[in-house]
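Local shape tokens

___
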Amino acid sequence: MRKERKEALESFLVRLGVTMQDLSLMDTALTHSSYAYECKEKVVPEFNQRLEFLGDSVLSLVVSTHLYLAYPEMDEGALSKFRAFLVCEETLAELAQDLAIGDYLLLGRGECHMGGRYNPSILADAFESVMGAYYLDAGYEKVRDLLTRVLIDKIPELTADGIDRDYKTRFQELIQAQGQTDIHYEEAGFDGPPHNRTFFMKVIVGEKTYGTGSGRTKKLAEQRAAREALRLVKKKQG
């Protein structure tokens, strides 16, 4: 392993607040398939899909156990819906961004040029592979403690707007219940180069802007605009 890569991985572990015996596991966890496929070295490096598979199971077990113990009043259906929200792509991508996982990913040139470091799918997969790598190195209790810090403890924040991420539908239903039907979204601009663009959208009811949001896609920006609008309307309603 090159010195620069070793130092970068050690910096990432500091950010996570953990130590590892086998740093190569984390190196693999942060190596995307596009990098491996474009690699010109004689030995093609292992990439993170297998660790992602393992991390998905570890994550599910930790989250399921917590929900089972913390919410005894919930039935199976409610627990499953809650878990699905916590381990969905958008949630994991947000957590990955908090940990700056994208900064440490090895990506192929093409994927990097297309904004792979900010791609929600790639980030969510990398989050799972990181947990898989740490589980193999440190064991279940340690990875449970890590997930408690980076995910479980954030449940109140993550669920502040409920566990249904279809904010557009929720906002539409709320506004229609008030007798209003003229709801539409408009682009409010964008920022960044084509491969790393952030879009800004606003949700308008009649002629009044109720919320604005930004995201890597217009669809995501619309959802975030609707989320902000929901918060404002509910705040006014008390």
Observations:
- The chain has a mean pLDDT of 90.
- The CA atoms of residues 60 and 232 lie 33 Å apart.
